[in-house]
Write a structure and sequence with these properties.
The chain is mainly α and about 1000 residues long. It is built from 47 helices and 3 strands.
Length: about 1000
């Protein structure tokens, strides 16, 4: 610098120097009139030629920059002032400032080591001063963000020149003396903050990595210096002595928007250096320094939460413990303050809160299998346990105090946990030991903080994921704590559970075959149903123990039969079984809608027949089939207590029994159908439907309506082949199925004097599925068939067996009239022959005169067919016509049970094995005439009052007398001996 000035002086005369100096002194001291341009020229001349005058010259230019900035900021507030045009003044100032800026930049480039520290200190101080001085200006004070303030100052040319000078100084100093420039920046930031923040933001964005690293190092250095008196002093007091901490946080906060990754790397590098550094002071103060930064900035806390926790392995934690051992022993109170700071930061942790909790749990109670790695020391585990206890206490106090005041305060840790609520229940269910009560408290506080929806999500997740009754016990403990603050959480839990189940049910494929498909079970749905069963069992047990009169859970489940109904049609029989059991356990309210009742009846009926198919399709499933069938019967029994459902079940059960998919279960056979099989030479065996072929024909262009265009007869060389019938079932299975079907119909038709209590199922073990047991034996149920059910059953059987309603009058015409209805009667006979289960139903329910009254058309057709056959038969005995003989015996039995024929007329079935077909015809003809003479009624009292007169016994007497040799033993059955 001396060389440069010496060269200048040799070319300048002493008189010029004296003149410029006098002019500068006169202008700056107001000793005489000196123009602005002349004064600026003299200052610039002295700056170039007289280095020792730099401080005076820079001070002068400080005022010049100040005036220029004031003029720029005032230009928008006022018009022309002082009789001078401000634009002219501003132009003159900017010209002079551009000259000095160019000179300073040339000095910095030519000799940065000498000029950069001086110029940077002057420029930073000047920027801080003008930023503070003009902070109240209208254009500044209304700026709402740092970016707006920065843009406003950068739009001011004098301020932009100062920033340009400062940036050039930093660019020159960063490589050689970075600490010096960063220290100057921090000092200015501390002195002029927050008005100086825009300067820091601009410089930091120009040199992000260097500024971030040096700012952290300077902050740590200052922190260590303030703590150099020893760590035995109060940490809080030491932190108060760190004036640069706020400035460090402010600078990093400004740079976080665009340079967060650089900040993240710098923080972690500082932490890694403390682990391997040689300085004892740095090793002991780096972590407190980082935590102190985190306590002052949420952004830094977020970085430390996500990154620092990830590197805190057991080995690192043990190393940190060894570093702090001396401090803990020397100053226990300070160490406790440090722990309180840690707890405070954890409570403020929002992002990565779940990882933080998981780290504390893993460190406090490590898993036994750590893959052979280093385990946390016992002192480290004790410290984490202490932190957990303090943290839970603080969370409890915060949540309960907010709840008590009716205010919902923001607790960041709980808010972060609520955002990751799906992970916490799984962590709870997989934990053991002291982790469980900690997680229960955390989940309870999280639910109380976040509200009803979050609480319901937690409880619903426990229900879906619990695998054992012990895990499900967490549901009750959580529910008990949450209900203290959210009493209505149970209904919301059920709503969420069934919303998920409903969405799952919507994705299930509709079963085109009975529900014995070998589809893969949905584990979550199945487990949810089993857990709901366990919960219902506990609720019922509490009710039996008089713990409370009603259960909110059971009442809520009763309102969600529509969703359970969908799962009865699941391809997985296990899910169907669980849904049916749950539906039966909770019972059915009386206020169900008509549409839902109709749907329930149809679905339960389908489920009933599907249970009968299970034993046919899979071996070894008899127990499951029995359980499912019994549950269906119990469900039908409960639903039948609602009057509307009786007739629906009767219709659905009878119509289901005669369908071709189910009739073989009861020993029946469906009509043989034909399918068209392709047997062409190419070996194609695809099935072709004539119905579909004709539909395709109907969509084509209309042709003249002759026979070849009206009907498509198929493809040449395709022949109809009879479909293979179902393999007949063993007789014991057919008998059992028929008995089950009849018992189910009986449950629908019987008349109850009191509502049947809801069945309960022992669901304490989700894997153990016991048959259902009723609460009380049905001792208070009469064995009578209700008139409405008997009427419905009779009409349904008539509709099934008769193809039309013609001649379905209940009254019997003359016997000769059967000649008119021969074809119709024959079809009824064949239909009943294909569906033998209906014979069982007719026999079992024949004791109801109402049932037989409406079944009269079918009984008349059966008797007509038998009479037509026996009248022309050439067999020697009626027993040689086994079908007719058996049917006649059944028919007489039914008529006797229904009181249509009195004694001794009702005993004629005992004569059938000994009489000829024509004699049997005469006996049936006598029965026909008796029924025509005394037509049936619905009144049981009138039916039972009927008597048999002598005229009705004439045919019987004649037949017995004619066959007295082998019918003599039957005389006491017909005559009063």
């Amino acid at each position: 610098m001396a060389t440069a000035s010496g060269d200048i002086l040799t070319g300048s005369s002493a008189s010029d120097l004296r003149r410029q100096l006098n002019q500068f002194l006169q202008g700056t001291s107001n000793g005489g009139p000196v123009s602005y341009d002349a004064l600026s020229h003299s200052a610039l001349y002295l700056l170039r030629t007289v280095p020792v005058a730099r401080h005076a010259v820079l001070e002068h230019y400080s005022m010049s920059f100040d005036d220029a900035i004031n003029t720029n900021l005032s230009l928008s507030e006022r018009g022309p002032w002082g009789g001078q045009d401000p634009e002219v003044i501003l132009r003159s100032q900017q010209t002079a400032l551009q000259d000095v800026t160019g000179v300073l930049l040339s000095f910095i480039k030519s000799n940065a080591e000498a000029w950069a520290p001086i110029v940077s200190t002057w420029a930073l101080s000047l920027l801080g001063m003008v930023s503070t001085k003009y902070a109240a200006k209208r254009g500044v004070q209304h700026s709402t963000s740092l970016n707006e303030v920065l843009q406003m100052w950068m739009a001011c040319p004098p301020a932009k020149m100062l920033i340009e000078i400062t940036t050039e100084c930093f660019a020159a100093m960063v490589g050689g003396a970075p600490d010096m420039c960063v220290d100057a920046l921090l000092e200015a930031s501390v002195r002029y903050s927050p008005n100086f923040d825009w300067v820091v933001a601009h410089i930091g964005s120009c040199f992000p990595r260097t500024i971030i690293t040096r700012v952290l190092n300077c902050g740590l250095k200052d922190y260590c210096t303030s703590s150099s008196d020893g760590l035995d002093k109060d940490m809080a007091n030491n932190r108060m002595k760190v004036p640069k901490m706020a400035s460090v946080v402010g600078i990093l906060g400004h740079l976080a928007a665009k340079h967060s990754q650089d900040i993240r790397k710098a923080l972690m590098a500082l932490f890694e250096a403390s682990l391997h550094g040689e300085s004892q002071s740095n090793r002991m103060t780096t972590l407190p320094f980082l935590l102190q930064l985190a306590s002052m900035s949420d952004m830094l806390l977020q970085i430390l939460t996500s990154d620092l926790v990830a590197v805190l392995s057991p080995a690192v934690v043990n190393k940190l413990h060894r570093q702090f051992t001396h401090w803990k022993r020397a100053a226990p109170s300070d160490y406790n303050s440090f722990l309180n700071l840690v707890v405070h930061l954890i409570a403020k942790c929002k992002v990565g809160s779940c990882d933080m909790i998981n780290f504390l749990l893993q460190t406090a109670i490590p898993q036994e299998d750590n893959n052979g790695g280093e385990m946390p020391l016992e002192e480290v585990r004790d410290t984490c346990i202490e932190i957990m206890h303090i943290l839970l206490f603080e969370l409890q106090r915060g949540v309960l105090s907010k709840k008590g005041n009716g205010l919902m305060g923001d607790m960041p840790l709980l808010t972060g946990l609520a955002a990751q609520v799906e992970a916490l229940p799984g962590l709870l269910l997989s934990s053991r030991g002291n982790r469980i009560p900690w997680l229960l408290k955390l989940l309870t506080y999280t639910a109380l903080q976040a509200g009803e929806n979050c609480a319901a999500s937690i409880l619903a997740a426990v229900v879906f994921n619990s695998q054992t009754p012990q895990q499900l016990g967490a549901f009750y403990r959580l529910k008990q704590g949450i209900e203290l603050g959210i009493p209505t959480v149970t209904q919301c839990v059920l709503a969420q559970i069934f919303n998920k189940l409903e969405s799952t049910a919507a994705s299930l494929p509709l079963p085109s075959t009975p529900l014995h498909s070998s589809a893969a079970p949905e584990i979550n749905v199945l487990q949810a149903f089993r857990n709901l069963e366990r919960i219902v069992c506990v609720e019922q047990m509490k009710i039996r123990k008089k713990a409370f009169s009603c259960s909110t859970i059971i009442e809520g489940l009763r309102q969600r039969h529509s969703v359970l109904c969908d799962f009865l049609l699941s391809p997985d029989p296990n899910i169907s079984l669980c849904a049916l059991r749950l539906m039966t356990m909770v019972g059915f309210p009386q206020d169900l809608s008509i549409s839902l009742l109709t749907r329930l009846c149809g679905v339960v009926t389908v489920c009933f027949y599907s249970s009968l198919h299970l034993i046919i399709e899979s071996t070894g499933s008899l127990t499951k089939r029995n359980r499912m069938t019994e549950l269906c019967m119990s469900c039908i029994e409960q639903l039948s207590c609602i009057p509307f459902t009786k007739s629906l079940f009767i219709h659905y059960l009878v119509e289901g029994a005669v369908q071709k998919e189910n009739c073989y279960l009861f020993g029946g056979r469906c009509p043989v159908t034909a399918v068209i099989n392709s047997s062409t030479s190419s070996g194609n065996t695809d099935t072709v439907s004539l119905l579909e072929e004709n539909r395709q024909q109907s969509l084509s262009i209309a042709l003249p309506r002759f026979h070849s265009s009206v009907y498509h007869g198929g493809v040449i060389r395709q022949i109809g082949k009879a479909q293979a019938p179902h393999k007949p079932l063993p007789k014991h299975l057919v008998s059992k199925n028929c008995l089950t079907f009849t018992e189910t119909l009986w449950l629908c038709c019987r008349e109850l004097t009191q509502a049947v209590p809801a069945a309960t199922v022992d669901g304490t073990n989700g894997q153990k599925e016991e048959p259902m047991e009723t609460n009380q034996p049905p001792t208070n149920i009469t064995q009578n068939i209700s008139e409405g059910s008997a009427r419905t059953l009779g009409c349904v059987i008539v509709d099934v067996l008769t193809l039309d309603s013609l001649y379905n009058d209940v009254h019997w015409q003359d016997p000769d009239f059967r000649r008119v209805t021969t074809e119709r009667d024959t079809l009824v006979w064949k239909r009943l022959e294909e569906l033998p289960v209906l014979w069982n139903v007719i026999q079992e329910f024949s004791s109801s005169c109402v049932f037989l009254y409406y079944l009269s058309p079918v009984l008349r057709s059966l008797m007509a067919v038998m009479m037509n056959h026996l009248e022309v038969s050439r067999e020697g005995f009626m027993r040689n016509c086994p079908k007719q003989c058996e049917a006649a015996i059944k028919l007489v039995y039914c008529l006797t049970q229904g009181s249509w024929i009195p004694s001794p007329l009702s005993n004629i079935s005992e004569l059938f094995p000994f009489v000829s077909p024509y004699e049997a015809y005469l006996l049936l003809l006598g029965l026909w005439r008796y029924i025509k003479e005394k037509p049936p009624t619905e009144l049981e009292k009138d039916m039972k009052s009927r008597t048999c007169e002598a005229s009705h016994m004439f045919v019987i007497t004649s037949i017995i007398h004619a066959n007295i040799d082998h019918m003599g033993h039957l005389c006491p059955r017909f005559f009063n001996m």
